[in-house]
Design a protein that fits this description.
2 domains, globular, 60s Ribosomal Protein L30, Chain: A, mainly alpha, 4 strands, 2-methylcitrate dehydratase PrpD
């Protein structure tokens, strides 16, 4: 068996060294794209109930750095519209962007946009490689991996922008590991988005505690540490994190969401929409829809008969019904009123989801099969990749269109200069000069919505 302590920290050190040097432009531009996407969905989530609650806990006082992380993190995930990576079955960018935005006023002097994006790369690498090491068992045990892993990733990102020495950075990782939390049982409630706020705040707090002189044990990354505790006591396996391997941002890549719902609904939505279009774009209500998912593909879809907008995001039958009846699945599909429409409630009973029992399928590429049966006709489609994946990536125009939709949802101007500058600013631009106005605008939007 490997000695996880030395192996994990050695792999982390190698990645931190790599991120301390200039990264290839294609990596930084990919990071810029997911930053823009995450800021867009943060704006869209600024008025949600869970975001208002996160603002309320700081009512009557100036937002601290960790308060700002809680608010921004919650807003970033409030609509479940942020990017995903199936390497660790989680949302990689939301905890990192929220933590780094919140920490911006305390970042080391001279931090350039390229440095900030490198911190994002280091944080997401830490999160995702740790998750790949744990495997799906961690998620299967009931943990929300975005939160548990995101705490450690956010600490790594924060350590980078604070310029912590290597020993203090190790301490930050271990402190963050003791803050890791988040349960899938809370999917479909206001608490799921709060998990991202918890992770972002925990990562910052861990880095600042390390900077202030607190200590922690490297044993966290040993045989009886994080892996053992968060993987149900399973024996440690080989760490799939080798020096020089492509960043996860490059392969398998992060998937930007076309639909504001659980990622594992996206291929079924795409399939239903394609079959609806094949039938001439007309929805016949007298049909049955059968959806075949890969093994574990229904794990987060815990609301077969959704009755609220939040539940609808984690309901395969609702997402299929909305796609078939409405012909599109956007932000408007996930209000309580939209989900409770009698036609949609009735149609959900005509949708069935089953899982294949095939072992070894990858959740990001294993086919989803959608079949629609009507009176005397059957249409069928196999969807291998989700819209927004590297196999079907966003164009610049589509990314801007998503921002406009998010801005409209939040009642914000779509021509926001701070947002649009993020997309094109030179990489040597001072990060604070570029992003402080955007940070302030996002926090103002959250505060205004809270009243």
């Amino acid at each position: 068996m490997n000695e996880p302590s030395n192996e994990f920290l050695a792999a982390w050190d190698a990645c931190a060294d790599r991120c301390a040097k200039p990264l290839p432009s294609e990596v930084l531009e990919a990071a810029r794209q997911v930053w823009f996407d995450t800021c867009a969905v943060t704006a869209a989530g600024s008025g949600e109930n869970t975001t208002r609650a996160s603002v309320a806990v700081a009512e009557g006082r100036e937002l601290t750095t960790t308060d700002a992380a809680l608010v921004l993190g919650t807003a970033s995930h409030a609509l479940d519209y942020d990017d995903v990576c199936m390497l660790a079955t989680c949302h990689p960018s939301a905890p990192m962007v929220s933590a780094l935005m919140a920490l911006l006023p305390r970042a080391r002097p001279g931090l350039a946009l390229a440095d900030l994006l490198a911190a994002h790369v280091l944080g997401t690498e830490t999160q995702l490689r740790l998750g790949a090491w744990l495997g799906f068992r961690h998620y299967g045990l009931g943990f929300h991996a975005t939160s548990t892993l995101g705490s450690v990733g956010a600490a790594a990102a924060a350590a980078h922008v604070l310029g912590l020495p290597r020993g203090q950075a190790h301490v930050a990782l271990s402190i963050a590991a003791s803050s890791a939390c988040g349960l899938r049982a809370n999917f479909g409630t206001d608490t799921k988005p709060l998990h991202v706020g918890f992770a972002a705040a925990a990562g910052i707090r861990a880095a600042l505690l390390a900077q202030a002189g607190a200590n922690a044990s490297d044993d966290v990354w040993g045989a009886g540490g994080f892996f053992h505790a968060f993987n149900g006591g399973a024996p440690a396996t080989d760490l799939p994190w080798k020096p020089g391997m492509p960043f996860a941002l490059q392969a398998p890549g992060f998937e930007l969401k076309r639909f504001p719902s659980c990622y594992l609904t996206h291929r079924l939505i795409a399939g239903v929409l394609a079959l609806r279009e094949r039938r001439g774009g007309v929805a016949d209500a007298d049909v049955r829809i059968a959806i075949e998912m890969p093994r574990n593909g229904t794990a987060p879809l815990k609301h077969p008969r959704a009755s609220t907008g939040l539940e609808g995001k984690f309901s395969g039958p609702y997402c299929a019904a909305a796609a078939w009846i409405d012909g599109r699945v956007g932000l408007a599909a996930f209000t309580d009123e939209a989900v409770r429409r009698p036609a949609l409630q009735a149609f959900m009973r005509q949708v069935t989801l089953v899982e294949r029992t095939t072992e070894g399928e990858s959740l990001d590429s294993a086919p989803v099969v959608v079949e629609v049966r009507g009176n005397g006709w059957t249409e069928k489609i196999v969807v291998d990749w989700a819209p927004g994946s590297l196999a079907d990536p966003f164009t610049r125009d589509q990314l801007l269109a998503k921002w406009r939709d998010c801005a409209t949802h939040a009642g914000l101007p779509a021509d926001s200069r701070p947002m649009l500058e993020l997309l094109d600013a030179p990489l040597d631009t001072p990060a604070a000069k570029l992003l402080q106005p955007l940070r302030d605008a996002l926090l103002r939007a959250c505060d205004a919505a809270a009243g």
